[in-house]
From TrEMBL:
The keyword Ligase does not apply. Its cofactor is a divalent metal cation; Zn(2+); Mn(2+); Fe(2+). This is Ribulose-phosphate 3-epimerase. Belongs to the ribulose-phosphate 3-epimerase family. Keywords: Carbohydrate metabolism, Cobalt, Isomerase, Manganese, Metal-binding, Zinc. A divalent metal cation binds at residues 40, 42, 74, 179. Pfam families: Ribul_P_3_epim (PF00834). It comes from the Eukaryota. It comes from Mytilus edulis (Blue mussel).
Length: 232
């Protein structure tokens, strides 16, 4: 069991992958105005995943437009360490890297912390969750992928829920994120499993009422946290 670190709360991080990228700043602002707790910014290098998005120059342009927003960088890049300093200098708050993209997880986390960011670690669907055990105390969050990373709008993989259940059972205070196909149809499964940091892309971007969707996602998670605390 991990030592108690904080009270868990439900947090919603819209993924801007399927937004109108020609209006990225206004899409980000629209999500913040709708109640986003943080922004999940997907960085893809065309090597670790078969797609390309954007890098630190875009983050640097976004930062002054939204000085108080929390930027979580989902770094789908290999090697994972490659962009730590640049992202920190551009205004990123959290650097979530992939376990599969580094030979040295503790070294990568150390560099992220030295650069002044929080550290998150993510695993692809094919990676066993137990590989993370030695690193949980080093990182701020774990992000469980419920799609193959690379594209938004894919089908949610419900068979990833045991990974979240495993983490919640063993690390009761850990911030556990879930990413890929999370919507009003799949949030209950994520909440029941124990996820509290909810990344949602298409479901928010395509909604006419992202505020309402965010509120429902958050309430579902908060209800589940409260229920599990009562059961303890
Ligand atoms: O990391 C990602 C894909 O690699 C995205 O964050 C994720 O897919 C979110 O989009 P959606 O909710 O549409 O699945």
């Amino acid at each position: 069991m991990s030592s108690p670190r904080k009270c868990l709360s439900g947090k919603i991080g819209p993924s801007i992958l399927n937004s109108d990228l020609s209006n990225l700043a206004s899409e980000c602002q629209r999500m913040l105005d709708s109640g986003a707790d943080y922004l999940h910014l997907d960085v893809m290098d065309g090597h670790f995943v078969p797609n390309l998005t954007f890098g630190h120059p875009i983050v640097k342009c976004l930062r002054p437009k939204m000085p108080n927003a929390m930027f979580e960088m989902h770094m789908m890049v290999e090697p994972a360490e490659r962009w730590i300093e640049d992202m920190a200098a551009s205004g990123a708050n959290m650097y979530t890297f992939h376990y599969e993209a580094t030979q040295d997880v503790p070294g990568c986390v150390r560099k992220i912390k030295e650069a002044g960011m929080k550290a998150g670690i993510s695993i692809k669907p094919g990676t066993k969750v137990e590989v993370l055990d030695p690193f949980i105390d080093l990182v701020d969050t774990v992000l469980i992928m419920t799609v193959e990373p690379g594209f938004g709008g894919q089908k949610f993989m419900a068979d990833m829920m045991p990974k979240i259940e495993y983490l919640r059972e063993h690390f009761s205070n850990l911030d556990i994120g879930v990413d890929g196909g999370v919507s009003l149809d799949t949030i209950q499964m994520c909440a029941n499993a124990g996820a509290n940091m909810i990344v949602s892309g298409s479901a928010l971007m395509k909604s006419d009422n992202p505020r309402e969707v965010m509120q429902t996602l958050r309430n579902t998670v908060e209800d589940s946290i409260q229920k599990s605390q009562l059961e303890r």
